[in-house]
C-alpha cells in the first residue's frame, strides 16, 4: 500500500505539474497578448500625443502667422486711410483750383471781349477821325473854291441821320437809357448816330446812316431812340 500510495502521489504530482505547466503557458501567452496589446495601445497613445503636439504646434504657428498678417493688414489699412485723406484733400484743392481757373478763364474771356470791343471802338474812332479830317479838308477846299453867296443866302449843312460826335468814355459811368452802371460784363457801346454811350441791350439795333457825301453807309450800331426815330 505504501508503494501504491507513493505511486498515486507521484502520478498526481506529475498530473498537477503538467496542468500547472499548461496553466503557466496559457497565462504567459495571455500576459504576452495583454503586454502586446498594452504596448500597441501605448504606441497609439504616443502617436496620438505626437499628432496632438504637432497639431498644437501647427495651430500655434498658424495663429502667429495670422497675427502677423493682421498687423500688416492694419498697417496697410492705416496707410490706405491716410492715402484716402490725402486724396480727398487733393480733390478739394483741385476743385478750388478748377473753380479759380474757371473764374480766371471767365475774366480772361471778358477781358478778351473787352479788348476786342476796345479795338473795334479804336478802329472806328480812328476811322471817325479820318472821316472828320477828310470832311474838314473838303469843307476848307469848298470854302476856298466857293464864289460869293447871293445876298441873304444861307449855307445849309443839314445831315439828317448822319453820325454824331462820340461822347468820351470817361464821363459816362451809367447807361444813358436804362441807367445801369457799367462794369466788366456790362460794357460801354456808342450809338453811331447820336454818339451817346449805352449798354448792349439798349444799343442792339443796326441802322444805315448818311455819310458826308449824302450816301447811306453800312448798317452800324445805334440806340433804341435813334433807331425808332429813323423808322
From TrEMBL:
<dbReference type="InterPro" id="IPR047335">
    <property type="entry name" value="RUFY1-3"/>
</dbReference>
<keyword id="KW-0175">Coiled coil</keyword>
<dbReference type="InterPro" id="IPR000306">
    <property type="entry name" value="Znf_FYVE"/>
</dbReference>
<keyword id="KW-0863">Zinc-finger</keyword>
<feature type="domain" description="FYVE-type">
    <location>
        <begin position="169"/>
        <end position="231"/>
    </location>
</feature>
<keyword id="KW-0479">Metal-binding</keyword>
<feature type="coiled-coil region">
    <location>
        <begin position="28"/>
        <end position="86"/>
    </location>
</feature>
<dbReference type="InterPro" id="IPR013083">
    <property type="entry name" value="Znf_RING/FYVE/PHD"/>
</dbReference>
<protein>
    <recommendedName>
        <fullName>FYVE-type domain-containing protein</fullName>
    </recommendedName>
</protein>
<dbReference type="Pfam" id="PF01363">
    <property type="entry name" value="FYVE"/>
</dbReference>
<dbReference type="GO" id="GO:0008270">
    <property type="term" value="F:zinc ion binding"/>
</dbReference>
<keyword id="KW-0862">Zinc</keyword>
<dbReference type="InterPro" id="IPR017455">
    <property type="entry name" value="Znf_FYVE-rel"/>
</dbReference>
<dbReference type="GO" id="GO:0005737">
    <property type="term" value="C:cytoplasm"/>
</dbReference>
<dbReference type="InterPro" id="IPR011011">
    <property type="entry name" value="Znf_FYVE_PHD"/>
</dbReference>
Amino acid at each position: 500500500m505504501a508503494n501504491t500510495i507513493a505511486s498515486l502521489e507521484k502520478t498526481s504530482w506529475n498530473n498537477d505539474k503538467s496542468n500547472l505547466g499548461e496553466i503557466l503557458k496559457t497565462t504567459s501567452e495571455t500576459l504576452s497578448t495583454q503586454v502586446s496589446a498594452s504596448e500597441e495601445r501605448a504606441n497609439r497613445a504616443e502617436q496620438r500625443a505626437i499628432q496632438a503636439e504637432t497639431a498644437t504646434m501647427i495651430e500655434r504657428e498658424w495663429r502667429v502667422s495670422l497675427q502677423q498678417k493682421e498687423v500688416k493688414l492694419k498697417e496697410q489699412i492705416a496707410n490706405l486711410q491716410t492715402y484716402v485723406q490725402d486724396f480727398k484733400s487733393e480733390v478739394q484743392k483741385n476743385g478750388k483750383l478748377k473753380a479759380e481757373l474757371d473764374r480766371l478763364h471767365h475774366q480772361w474771356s471778358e477781358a478778351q471781349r473787352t479788348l476786342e470791343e476796345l479795338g473795334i471802338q479804336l478802329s472806328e474812332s480812328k476811322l471817325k477821325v479820318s472821316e472828320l479830317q477828310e470832311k474838314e479838308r473838303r469843307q476848307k477846299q469848298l470854302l476856298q473854291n466857293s464864289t460869293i453867296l447871293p445876298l441873304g443866302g444861307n449855307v445849309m449843312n443839314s445831315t439828317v441821320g448822319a453820325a454824331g460826335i462820340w461822347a468820351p468814355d470817361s464821363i459816362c459811368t451809367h447807361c444813358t437809357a436804362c441807367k445801369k452802371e457799367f462794369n466788366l460784363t456790362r460794357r460801354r457801346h456808342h450809338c453811331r448816330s447820336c454818339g451817346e454811350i449805352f449798354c448792349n441791350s439798349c444799343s442792339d439795333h443796326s441802322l444805315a446812316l448818311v455819310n458826308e457825301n449824302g450816301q447811306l453807309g453800312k448798317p452800324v450800331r445805334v440806340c433804341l431812340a435813334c433807331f425808332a426815330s429813323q423808322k
